[in-house]
Each structure stands twice: as C-alpha cells, then as structure tokens.
Specification:
The chain is mainly beta and 238 residues long. 13% of the residues lie in helices and 47% in strands. The radius of gyration is 19 Å and the shape is globular.
Length: 238
C-alpha cells in the first residue's frame, strides 16, 4: 500500500471515528421530551449585568424536535415566546426567524439563534483532532465543519467531548481562522440518569462580553401535549 493511500485511509478512519463519537453522544443524551426554567445573566464589557428568566419545553430531539421558549422576566420581554416563529404580544403578530437572522444576538445575549439550535449530526462533517485534558477531564477534540448545503455563520467549530460520559463540554467557534466565541459547560450533573449541563457560559471574544445560562427544575420524558407546540398556543399564552 502506498504512502498516500495509507494517509487517505487513516484520514477516513479519523473522520469516521469522530462522527461515531458525535452520534453516540447524541444517542446517550437523547430524551423524548424536556422541560426546565432558565436564567440568563448577561455581562457587558464593563462588568454590568442584566438578567432574564424563561420557561422551556421540548418534544423530540436532534433534528426532529419542537420547542417552546417563553420569557417570564423582566417586564420588557415578559410574554415573548419562540417556537419556529417569534410571537410578540404587544404587536399581536408573529415573525419567522429567517436563515439570515440566525446569526442575530438572542435578545441581547451572547448567544445567537443558531447557537441555541440542537446540533443534528447530519449537518456537519467531522474530524478527530486528538485527545486533550480539560478541567481535569480527558476529552476527545473534534472539528465540526458545516456541510456546503448548511447555512452557518461559523466556518468551523472545535468541540471537546468528555471521554467518560461522552458529553460535549466546550465549543470554540471560528470565522475563517479567527476564534470568535467560546461556550463552556461549567456545571454538569446527572438528572434522571441523563448527564446534563446545568450551567454554561458563552463568551463573545470580539465584544468581550459573556452570558451565563443556568438551568433549574430540569425534567426529562415528561408528558407534553403536541398542541402546546403550535403558533395558536403561543397566541393564547399557553
């Protein structure tokens, strides 16, 4: 076997291994539904802080899910809800999140709408970069590049996946060669035998701002009516 053929085979195996790790990670942490209350703490470049609270519900997972997010506080955003559409009570209308809006900051936080989407394994190509220790935990380091058919604000994302529980615990997002954002999972615990992130931090390295997201009252596999995940339900405030 020639040198170039050996390199090609080795590269193919690394890509296959990376995809298998991502697939197994999603498989292990899949649930039929999810419900929680969340807190968003937004810190500006000078250290100033504002806070938002919300309720979240999801049925299905990874490319086949439906989610509803409804803000509880502060008064400026209370009642605003998101499905696939955004419902704004004061204007009595809904607005679809267009593809070009997915890079928009999510209600003044350091998350974009794209950052909050579930990552379907089919949307990217993967490469195993190696293994590294992060916060004392052995991790796989995987490069994720959006497929040409997939619209993304990022050129690539490097993901750290804990080897022991196969949970992603850090994401670094790049635009071309520039590292623009870093998302770190600060608090990881088991909830109903599912390893879950209960606190994570997103840093915008260009703006020098950060947002901390905390999850409270997390439950999996709860019974949620399909009718809850409709635009009509949002309008009724359900």
């Amino acid at each position: 076997m020639s040198k170039w053929l050996l390199l090609f085979v080795a590269g193919s195996l690394l890509a296959q291994d990376a995809r298998q790790i991502v697939e197994e990670s999603q498989k292990r942490h899949r649930s039929r539904s999810q419900q929680y209350e969340g807190v968003l703490e937004v810190y500006d470049a000078k250290g100033g802080k504002n806070e938002k609270r919300w309720q979240f519900a999801r049925i299905g997972s990874y490319g086949q899910s439906k989610s509803v997010l409804r803000f509880l506080a502060p008064p400026l955003v209370k009642g605003v809800a998101l499905l696939i559409w955004m419902w704004t009570p004061e204007l009595n209308r809904d607005r679809r999140i267009a593809l070009q809006d997915r890079s928009t900051r999510f209600f003044g936080t350091d998350f974009s709408f794209e950052d909050l989407e579930e990552r379907d394994v089919e949307q990217s190509d993967y490469k195993l970069l190696g293994e590294q220790t992060l916060n004392g935990q052995a991790c796989y380091q995987i490069e994720s590049v959006p497929k040409q058919s997939r619209t993304s604000q990022y050129s690539k994302t490097v993901v750290w996946v804990r080897k022991d529980i196969l949970l992603p615990v850090q994401f670094e997002m790049y635009v071309k060669t520039e590292l623009v954002k870093r998302m770190v999972h600060r608090r990881v615990e088991q909830v109903q035998n599912v390893w879950s992130t209960l606190e994570l931090e997103m840093s915008d390295l260009r703006k020098k701002t950060r947002t901390v997201m905390k999850t409270e009252k997390l439950k999996y596999d709860v019974t949620l009516p399909e009718e809850q995940f409709t635009l009509q339900a949002l309008r009724r405030g359900e």
